[in-house]
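Cross-check.
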Amino acid sequence: MKRREFTLLAAPSVVLMTVLMIAPLVTTVVLSLNQFSYGTSLKWVGLKNYAQLLASPELHSSLLFTVLFVIGTTTLKLFLGFALALLLNFAVRARSVFLGALLVPLVVPPVVGALIYGWMFREDIGVGFYQYLLTLMGINIEWFSSTPGAIALLVGQNVWQDISFAALIFLAGLQVVPAEPLEAALVDGANWLQRQRYIIMPSLSGLFAFVSMMSVMDSFRIFDSIAVTTGGGPNGTTESLMFLAYKVSFQQSQLGLGSAMSMLTVIGIVLLLVPFLVLTKRQFRNAR
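Predicted model, tokenized:
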């Protein structure tokens, strides 16, 4: 491919990336270095916004919640997604039925899914079907007024929304696992768990890294689920970094401080993704 042809083909993507990503990012960086609110002009404050945020107890609380949320959701997506993929790989005849059921959360908009999921646990509006079933089993959890209940509710909703993606990725990987190592392991007397541990899972290590990376990015910037279910409560214990940035920017009208909050979120996502990117690059080199 000639350089001119490559330029013509890449130009639309470069323009789109510049307009939708680079320009807003530069604007956010500029705002984060200024004191700015609605109806006022920019006032240069340098790193004062960042220093104020780093000393804020609200930031520490939201950072703790976000990190715990990312770890919890990512772990469950990997474990349950791989388990579902193994089930689908085994149940060949009923695979189409299970795949149809798995695709439902993927086509539901996140806000709608979070809203409906929250309704299933609310008895005060007469829709709490899940809560009704738990009550029949003698389990009574305050999902919206207790911190553990609210966190569990958000984690469950996020896993339900994204588990299909992880399962489909792992299922695709299982279809291309070489048969020869599995047959050799059977001859050597390896049981089912040993085959999963020493043959299949190492073969899918790249997919585990990919699913982990996608989960970290999605979970770290969670906002919509919190906005329509817990609203950051109780007492702000379920406020993520993105939700805190929204509250500071639009509810408290401190756009400069909110922009700094957004930049800290971007930096946090990049730092969390570095190990996965290094692992992916290393595997790509080994595969060449």
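The beta strands are 34-35, 43-44. The radius of gyration is 23 Å. Passed to J.P. for a second look.
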